[in-house]
Amino acid sequence: MIEVAKLYYQSDYSQQEIGTKFGISRPTVSRLLKRAKDKGYVQIKIVDPFFDLAHLEAALKEKYSLAEVHVIFSPESYYETITAHLSHFAAKYLEEVIVEGTILGVSWGTTMYEIARKLTPKKVSGVEVVQLKGGISHSDVQTYANETISLFSAAFQTTPLHLLLPVIFDHVTTKKLVEKDRHMRYIIEKGKQATVALFTVGTVRENALLFRLGYFDENEKMRLKKQAVGDICSRFFDAKGEISDQEINSRTMGIDLEELRYKEKSILVAGGHRKLAAIDGALKGKYANILMIDQFTAKELLKWNEPHE
């Protein structure tokens, strides 16, 4: 009985192969396997990952007072794998919630581009898609800003509203002059009117995307690394979710973070260990009411303490 059970459960032999090996019939093998389970020699444990996900969702929803939490199962904790699964879910979610008359505000970056690529075109009228922050840089680093908003717009059969400006100006006076232009003012106002906002968080690591686009000098990078934990739409915030550098913030072209608090759906899509501090700060700042996150990061986030605590 024990030998039959070992061959079947540990060595993946079929019941027919076991019967042939021992010179017994297949029904006899089946009876021996059942007897082994009845006696407790064989114990089968089924792990349901989705049961765990529901508990994580409830705990995060309570911790951060969120309207919705979606913990997405990822088979591995590698950032690329997590991003692939999060972006797939976010694309399917958007296809359901975007309806006639929706104004969708989108950010840009790798995660946003992956979501845009996975969208299935939906027949819907009256949708507007607007860029929530400036999308121009003179760096060779690919941001996919134009491709991202174009893919979102194509999926929902509309014309994109590009914010064709640098996301961070050198001088606040230049930014204020540009904001007076009625065309720019129109797009900025559309961003404020967006009923659904979709974004991720950036980090303040040395190789963070914004740090590679040539917007900051070394002194500004050092300031941000010291004061901030991350950014949303290129607006940097600290561990409490408050703007970390008012001078840089005043030169930033895009939606004010406070505006995100009043959206019908303010959706943060982010995962991976390196984004923990940024996700925590963003949620403490109440900039999202919907969170999409993987189970690895969700577990860590529930135990997350601010660095100085």
Cα radius of gyration in angstroms: 25 Å
- The CATH architecture designation of the largest domain is 3-Layer(aba) Sandwich
Number of strands: 9
* Amino-to-carboxy terminus distance: 57 Å
**What does the main sheet amount to?**
7 strands, parallel
Let me know the average pLDDT: 93
How do the strands of the widest beta sheet line up side by side?
A: 1-9-8-5-2-3-4
Helix proportion: 40-55%
In CATH, the topology of the largest domain is named: Rossmann fold
3D shape: elongated
Provide the β-strand percentage band: 5-15%
Provide the domain count. Answer: 2
At the first level of CATH, the class of the largest domain is Alpha Beta
Number of helices: 14
Describe the oligomeric state of these chains in a short phrase. single chain
Provide the succession of SSEs.
HHHHEHEHEHEHHEHEEHHEHEH
Class per helix and strand makeup: alpha/beta
Poorly predicted runs of 5 or more residues = none
Domain Sugar-binding: 49-303
Organism: Carnobacterium iners
Protein name: Deoxyribonucleoside regulator
InterPro entries: NagB/RpiA_transferase-like, RNA_pol_sigma70_r4, RNA_pol_sigma_r3/r4-like, SorC_transcr_regulators, Sugar-bd_dom_put
